[in-house]
Amino acid sequence: MIALNKPLPPDLEKLNAYLVQVNDSSWYTNFGPLHEQLTKRLEAYLGVQNLLLVSNGTLALQVACKALNINSAITTPFSFVATTSSLLWQGIDMAFSDIDMNSYNLCPIALDDALQQNNNYDGVVATHVYGNPCDVNGIADVANKHNKKVIYDAAHAFGINVGEQSVLNFGDASTLSFHATKVFHTVEGGAIVFKHRTDFDKAKQLINFGIQADGSLGEPGINAKLNEYQCAVGLTLLDDIDGVIKHRAALFKIYTNELNGIVELPQWHAQANFNGAYMPIFIACVQKQQDVMQALAKNNIQCRRYFTPSLDLAYDQQKSFGCANSQKIAGGVICLPLHNFMSVNDVIAVTDVIKEVL
User: Fold this and answer.
1) Please, which residues have CB within 8 angstroms of residue 138's CB and are 6 or more apart in sequence?
2) Domains of the chain
3) How far apart are CA 355 and CA 296, in angstroms?
4) How far apart are CA 39 and CA 190, in angstroms?
5) Does the chain have fewer CB atoms within 10 Å around its N or its C terminus?
6) Span 111-162, pLDDT tens digits
7) Residues 27-51: pLDDT tens digits?
8) Do 92 and 72 contact (CB within 8 A), yes or no?
């Protein structure tokens, strides 16, 4: 079987060396030595500052909103459900704005139109879908025009740059997921990268129950800290992440070369690199979608409708400024297998099946 995804296992010998350190120190959580080491290494590797580790990517979004005082937001309908559900769980007044048909990301023009209709939202939450960067300059222009804060859900965008800048340096905050299925993981976990140190400092208090540096209680917080055992996994995997990303990106390029003209593919940001996080294809015809998925299953190849449905349909009680593009893309997108343990021959086996059907 060619699996849709296969998480990276940490090298047990390296991992155990870190775990011995944890046991010897008896410091298992609460911003321990491995937490500080992973923070510094990730900041250096990703080219960012003000990186705060948290216990998962969903809490990363919630804490970022809380730290930035975002109580209402416009967001994308084409993303993993957590982008929306994390906001709704926190009681954020939320609305959907449509995506760009080429990139599958939140469309700055549609966003501008939405904010002209209703300018009462505090901020914007946009997703770098499949690791493909949003039009960060276009969204910045709209946000500045309407005086809105911007949070990027960068769960798929580990190691992605726009030009010479990490994609995480755009907006007021960017959130990462370190779930086991991601390019880089800590089994469960995540991070927030803040533009401003004051927001980082506030968030660090919030993820530790709101306890301030002097031990007094400030704004009510939550427990969203990343523990030392999970940091040990991250430190172990970070040693080899360059090779992982290089391999996944190479497979992604082979996929796109083989399937160009056979299926529709999202248009990648012209100034961005690739991390091979996902391999999405779009097939408009429902019958052809079904034929491809059935043929892949027959050949023991996993695939997934990811993302579907368009979230404005799943949460139809929320305000929508019109999401026809998202509904169309969600109705035809399929993600193909892509992970570090695949070979070039595996990719060719997948694309041969699709070519035979289409």
Assistant:
1) 108, 109
2) 12-238 (3.40.640.10), 241-357 (3.90.1150.10)
3) 11
4) 11
5) N
6) 999 999 999 999 999 999 999 999 999 999 999 999 999 999 999 999 999 9
7) 999 999 999 999 999 999 999 999 9
8) yes
